Amino acid sequence: MSNPILTKVKNIFGDPVLRTRILFLLGALVVFRILAAIPIPGVDQIALSQFLANNQFFGLLSVFSGGGFSQLSIVMLGVGPYITASIIMQLATVIFPKVKTMYSEEGEAGRTKFITWSRTLSIPLSILQAVAFLSLLETQGVVSSLDSFAFATNVLLVAAGSMFLMWIGELITEFGIGNGVSIIIFAGIIAGVPGGISQLLFTATAANIPAYLGFAAVAIATIFAVVLVSEAERSIPIAYARQVRGSAMQQGAATYLPIRILQAGVMPIIFGLSLLLLPQVILAGLQAVGVPGLEGAITWYTAFSANPWWHGGLYFIFVVMFTFFYTSITFEPKRVADNLQKTGAFVPGVRPGPETERYIGNVVNRITLPGALFLGLLAVIPFIVQGLTGITAILIGGTALLIAVNVLLDLIRKIDAQASLREY
Asked: Does the predicted TM-score (pTM) go above 0.85?
């Protein structure tokens, strides 16, 4: 009797189109990892290691850069500028009705224009972030002091690396499988696992083994909970009206509309982290251009970032807020209700039109609330552990674990969908 998993793998790599997409994805990730290993000029690796060890805030940035920031590589910014630009554009759909119309009602042409604006906005954001971070690292002695021309060269190099990485992500989305930006973040997280395990083995002692085992148990439980909730869905029954064709009457079919509890996926976590990073970027950029009177604000925000309770509480609010926000953008009850009415479908016991829209909207809000609270709680578990034990090393691992599990689930789901499509 054949193994179904091996049969599925054989079918996946036996299809030339799907195999080409997977190989393209792997090749793009190899290019990304090569770029992440090329440092910018003038980096003091010892000072960099001490700086990152004493500043958990920049450990969060390393999640976006796929480990590039920990090496100060030419892609040290990762896809952070593009994510920030996407957040600004998503917020613009709420503030400006014309942007919302372009995004949701102009079809593929409108979404293409929306993405183009996001890419264009990423260019000045990448330059601003490059100036801010390089100036901050120079004041901390991580990067050697450079003249104006050398500093400008580093800024352009880092900004160009971020734009190139954004381009690779777009190529993965188009010619590979899955969301390219999320996969780049996932690849950087996975690339740091072997080094983390080796460091853990070398530093392990008999005294801290129980703590490590406890963290491993929490990680396994977190993975199980994320998989369980990510796959959970609420099914709304859908029925189709009877149709008369000639002299025969055909009975309407019955199906259901699946609504996932976590429709936003990993995006609320990425949005929340981006907002936590944004004040530091703005303050460092303003300080770099010589704006006076920022020492008090920088000191206050640094102390705020070091407090796990306040920082974690704000992170929780951001994750919950963006879960509702992103769900409202990606899933519109009015559009679903209109499509059901156009195809002659209806929810049993609910009148078509506005009542169906309200019914679906209420269902989405009810199931999104526990999903958002669950996602926010998982995001702040590392902060809670840090506040209770004082251990900061788990902070990055907790956030990275959430992102990695969600991206991996989405990638497996899309590969399986592509394989099933070709089987039929």
From this structure: no
